[in-house]
């Protein structure tokens, strides 16, 4: 029997949200179940890739054959991605918080001081940093969750981030936390519209598409 198509390839996947502490007991985060990213990690492993999954806090089991590195904040995710290089393939699915908070060292108490104000600081863009890196993976894929003008926004994001493909998903419906997804694959050559499908099926199709692109 033939070897699986991604044998010998290292694939790096980010998934889940990041949590950015406000104080030792509170945080801000993006909404993300991690399901699509975990499914992609599993699908790449099923095609024979060695997979490193850098994961924010989620309630999911590690897929078989996948090496998982748990992180909490965007800066921890950026460092873990850097440590995992080099990679042939990177699929950045994580819903990274755009800002972190200038966090308090102790729990902020209600009361006397009035309502606290949060000072936000921009987080590093992990995808854009990887695109500009001398160790840029051969195939670098970003995600874009959009609620409108999905294709236009994804085309713009492809150029801005410097990645090879954007997987654009329309999150205007009930994609968040659900088990199905409706995506478009945006490349420099055009846009492929894929029918709505289970996240596992979207992942399997994406993994095959990746294997074809590297063949
Ligand atoms: O700019 P936006 O957050 O919409 O871009 C989404 C894409 O960029 C996703 O692939 C996401 O994983 C990645 N990203 C990142 N680091 C950030 C923000 C987004 O890697 N700080």
From TrEMBL:
It catalyses: (R)-4'-phosphopantothenate + L-cysteine + CTP = N-[(R)-4-phosphopantothenoyl]-L-cysteine + CMP + diphosphate + H(+); N-[(R)-4-phosphopantothenoyl]-L-cysteine + H(+) = (R)-4'-phosphopantetheine + CO2. Its cofactor is FMN; Mg(2+). Residues 11-215 are annotated as: Phosphopantothenate--cysteine ligase. Keywords: Decarboxylase, Flavoprotein, FMN, Ligase, Lyase, Magnesium, Metal-binding, Multifunctional enzyme. Pathway: Cofactor biosynthesis; coenzyme A biosynthesis; CoA from (R)-pantothenate: step 3/5; Cofactor biosynthesis; coenzyme A biosynthesis; CoA from (R)-pantothenate: step 2/5. The chain holds residues 211 to 425 of 425 of the full protein. It comes from the Bacteria. Binds 1 FMN per subunit. Catalyzes two sequential steps in the biosynthesis of coenzyme A. In the first step cysteine is conjugated to 4'-phosphopantothenate to form 4-phosphopantothenoylcysteine. In the second step the latter compound is decarboxylated to form 4'-phosphopantotheine. This is Coenzyme A biosynthesis bifunctional protein CoaBC. It comes from Sphingomonas naphthae. CTP binds at residues 98, 107, 124-127, 143, 157, 161. In the N-terminal section; belongs to the HFCD (homo-oligomeric flavin containing Cys decarboxylase) superfamily. In the C-terminal section; belongs to the PPC synthetase family. Its EC number is 4.1.1.36, 6.3.2.5. Residues 6-212 form the DNA/pantothenate metabolism flavoprotein C-terminal domain.
């Amino acid at each position: 029997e033939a070897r699986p198509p991604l044998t010998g390839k290292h694939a790096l996947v980010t998934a889940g949200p990041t949590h950015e502490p406000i104080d030792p007991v509170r945080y801000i985060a993006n909404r993300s179940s991690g399901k699509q990213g975990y499914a992609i990690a599993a699908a790449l492993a099923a095609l024979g890739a060695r997979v490193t999954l850098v994961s924010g806090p989620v309630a999911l089991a590690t897929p078989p054959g996948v090496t998982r590195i748990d992180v909490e904040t965007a800066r921890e995710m950026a460092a873990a991605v850097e440590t995992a290089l080099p990679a042939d393939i990177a699929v950045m699915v994580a819903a990274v918080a755009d800002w972190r908070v200038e966090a308090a060292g102790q729990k902020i108490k209600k009361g006397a001081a009035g309502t606290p104000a949060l000072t936000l600081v921009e987080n590093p863009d992990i995808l854009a940093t990887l695109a500009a890196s001398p160790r840029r993976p051969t195939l670098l894929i970003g995600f874009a969750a959009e609620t409108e003008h999905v294709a236009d926004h994804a085309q713009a994001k492809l150029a801005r981030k410097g990645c090879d493909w954007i997987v654009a998903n329309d999150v205007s419906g009930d994609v968040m936390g659900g088990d199905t997804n409706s995506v478009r694959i945006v490349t420099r050559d055009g846009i492929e519209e894929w029918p709505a499908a289970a996240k596992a099926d979207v992942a399997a199709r994406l993994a095959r598409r990746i294997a074809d692109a590297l063949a």
